[in-house]
Design goal:
The protein is elongated. It has about 725 residues and is α/β, with parallel strands linked by helices. The two termini are about 65 Å apart. About 60% of the residues lie in helices and about 10% in strands.
Length: about 725
């Protein structure tokens, strides 16, 4: 059973979703800041703020409904949905700020309660902070003792809110006034929006209780959409009464203006107290359940695992509630409603953005596993996500960037933890969709040498024994693809093959090498390799560079084995692939990664490819401090200076750090020059002639001639690829 599964307490759509959602929506902002909103931006401005806020909330509600009707939503609400859709890292990156926002919400509502009390009893103004602290501790104790009592109390609170609204609508003006349709004050439109927006974030109250619902997939859509609709209607009606009953300055100066307008002011007091208390209760119930889900998914260190414990038959997170209460008490000490509200707005908008992105991605990918009964078009979710992002920047671009940095920081931290989960998410589907589009796009486009990338396929016996081969292949890999492959005997079964693949993958990951792994079964190693080279890949994404270990058959006087190896190289060359054969020095391997010698014969295929490969090596941090010596042998001393000038001019055009070294052979053989000049190198590049019928003898001679030298990379370029165009700049 999943660690997040709880025994359902049997809450219905009305009791578990609609009631906590509408009580949070019709809360402290409505009673204590709605007049301030109307006074600052006028009637039309208020309509715009209310409509825009509700559009974002409505689109998010649709996304929530789509996700909720596709899968069982466990405890954790929005966090649970995001983590099961976009992965645990994204879920945690949003879930932690969401938990903090829920905890801060408790302070928002209890501060609102205290402010309303001091408005009614001005003599208590100096004790407003203490009243807020007392109420915060009170709702915390209530949640700790019995969440069930707290939930049932909401029905009485709903009655009080309904009574207060009736009393308000039956009231009268406090002064003669002329309604202002649009107003501009010291408060910008988006600052006013930021203060109001928490009023419509009540859908999280229902979502956070998802683990306590009898049937979340039905209750969440019905309860959430009904609450959003009810809230919108009420919020569009109230400004009309406010605007025609008091002038703008009165609305701004008197937070409790609704009480003066009402038929019975006491009903407003009951309503605001009920609303603030119910919202605070909803947050103190919801936030610990998010925390509990985060802890049980190992988002936090193991030392905090005790916070995931539950108590009683309903698995109530009492320890998490105590921690949440501590955060709320700390926030109350700030004592400023207008300071906390914008912070909550940014946190909630971030959560809404990712919720919409989750639903939009799932719908767009059209994965067979995503089958919601409440279907919406992906464009609605994307619009909701973009709306959240746009509003965040309009409210405060700096705060948006800070929020993004926090979320990204948490994401990267969780990614480094390599958390193991027991569920799948949509990320693989996202990459599959992008990969599908990319492959078809690459297939349609005409190949351009300027876009050449090394797609490397390298063969090994075992990564431990052939690590220099794999590491060098990884160093060449420059935003291309690397596949490490091996051939095992036919007698090894498929399970053994799969186990070896997993072992190699783990070894590569441990050594920070990003590559694919391919294991094939065959008793004919030299015969199967060319076939794998020919068949491996998809569309235009096929390996263009094959890296092999050097033949060792000649060391055992196994001429047949050597010929079979050379036949394999010849067949790969006929497939028009670049070939690099690594002959490692058994003692020094790749040395200190400080010196590379390239024995060069011009810009023809091998020469260009060798320079290109050394450039790729320099981009790898292991080789970043290496010096690349471009070595050229001339027979005539008179050719020394002209050759130096030509090489310097070429290097300048290539814009690659190369150190030219022109050697006059005089009467020395090339073998002697090679042994004398490259004895101190870490890696030597030598070009090979195309493999023909005499390749076995030719390659054997090179193996003999390079004995006692450092590691050698023999390069054989594909026949018809213009590598010089990859290197040369236009003009």
């Amino acid at each position: 059973m999943n660690v997040n599964e709880q025994k359902s307490s049997g809450l219905s759509a009305f009791g578990g979703v609609y009631t906590p959602s509408i009580l949070t929506i019709l809360g402290v902002i409505m009673y204590l800041r709605f007049g301030w909103v109307v006074g600052n931006v006028g009637l039309l401005g208020t309509f715009v703020i209310v409509t825009l806020s509700n559009v974002i909330t409505f689109l998010t509600a649709l996304s929530v409904c789509a996700i909720a009707t596709d899968r069982v939503v466990r405890a954790g609400g929005a966090y649970y949905m995001i983590s099961r859709s976009l992965g645990i890292e994204t879920g945690g990156a949003v879930g932690i700020p969401l938990y903090i926002a829920q905890a801060l919400s408790v302070a928002l509502y209890t501060l609102g309660f205290a402010e309303s009390v001091t408005q009614i009893v001005p003599a208590w103004a100096d004790y407003q902070l203490y009243i807020a602290l007392a109420i915060t501790i009170g709702v915390g104790v209530l949640a700790l003792t019995s969440a069930e009592i707290a939930i049932k109390a909401q029905y009485f609170i709903m009655g009080a809110i309904a009574l207060s609204l009736v009393s308000f609508f039956l009231g009268q003006p406090v002064e003669e006034t002329q309604m202002e349709l649009w107003r501009s004050t010291d408060q910008s439109f988006w600052q006013v929006f930021a203060v109001f927006f928490p009023a419509v974030t009540g859908i999280m109250a229902g979502v956070n209780m998802s683990g306590d619902l009898k049937d979340p997939s039905k209750a969440l859509p019905i309860g959430t959409l009904a609450a959003v609709g009810t809230g919108y209607v009420i919020y569009m009606i109230i400004p009309i009464f406010l605007g025609f009953r008091a002038d703008a300055q009165t609305l701004i100066d008197e937070p409790f203006i609704m009480a003066r307008m009402s038929f019975w002011g006491g009903a407003i007091a009951l309503g605001v107290w009920g609303a603030t208390l119910s919202s605070a209760i909803g947050s103190i119930l919801g936030a610990p359940r998010v925390l509990q889900a985060l802890v049980r998914d190992n988002i936090f260190p193991k030392s905090l695992s005790f916070l995931g414990q539950g108590a009683g038959k309903n698995d109530e997170p009492r320890l998490g509630t105590a921690v949440t209460l501590g955060i709320a008490v700390a926030a109350v000490c700030l004592g400023d409603l207008n300071l906390i509200a914008p912070i909550l707005t940014m946190f909630f908008l971030t959560t809404y953005l990712v919720l919409n992105a989750s639903a939009g991605i799932e719908s767009f990918l059209d994965s067979p596993s995503f089958r919601p009964t409440f279907k919406i078009h992906w464009s609605l979710s994307v619009t909701g996500a973009l709306g959240c992002l746009g509003v965040m920047f309009l409210i405060n671009a700096i705060a948006t960037m800070v929020a993004a940095i926090i979320v990204l920081g948490i994401y990267l931290y969780l990614q480094r933890q390599e958390l193991q989960v027991t569920w799948g998410d949509s990320r693989r589907g996202m990459w599959m969709a992008l990969l599908r589009t990319g492959i078809y796009q690459v297939e349609e486009e005409i190949a351009d040498p300027k876009n050449w990338r090394p797609h490397i396929l390298t063969f090994f016996h075992s990564p431990q024994k052939n690590w220099s081969l794999v590491k060098l292949a990884d160093s060449f890999n420059h935003k291309g693809f690397l596949t490490v492959a091996s051939v095992i005997p036919e007698r090894r079964d498929y399970q053994s093959k799969q186990n070896l693949e997993n072992t190699v993958k783990e070894y590569l990951a441990k050594n920070e090498v990003q590559g694919l792994v391919k294991i094939v079964r065959s008793d004919d190693t030299f015969g199967i390799v060319p076939k794998l080279v020919e068949s491996y890949g998809i569309g235009a994404l096929t390996p263009n560079t094959i890296i092999l270990g050097s033949s060792t058959a000649w060391l055992r006087d196994d001429w047949q084995g050597h010929q079979d190896y050379c036949q394999m190289v010849s067949q790969i060359h006929q497939l028009n692939r670049n070939i690099l054969i690594l002959k490692p020095n058994p003692t020094n391997q790749l040395g200190k990664h400080r010196r590379i010698d390239v024995w060069w014969g011009g810009m023809q295929a091998n020469g260009s490819l060798m320079i290109l490969l050394t450039y790729l090596l320099k981009n790898d941090w292991h080789w970043s401090r290496a010096n690349i010596y471009l070595k050229l042998v001339v027979s005539n001393p008179n050719a020394l200076e002209p050759t130096k000038n030509n090489i310097r001019e070429l290097i300048k055009k290539l814009n690659i750090e190369l150190i030219p070294e022109i050697i006059v052979s005089e009467e020395s053989s090339f073998d002697d020059i090679l042994q004398e000049n490259s004895r101190g190198a870490d890696l030597i590049f030598l070009g090979l002639a195309p493999a023909d019928e005499n390749f076995a003898e030719y390659y054997h001679s090179w193996l003999k001639r390079t004995e006692n030298l450092p590691t050698v990379a023999f390069v054989m370029a594909a026949n018809d690829f213009p590598f010089e165009e990859v290197l040369q700049k236009e003009g």
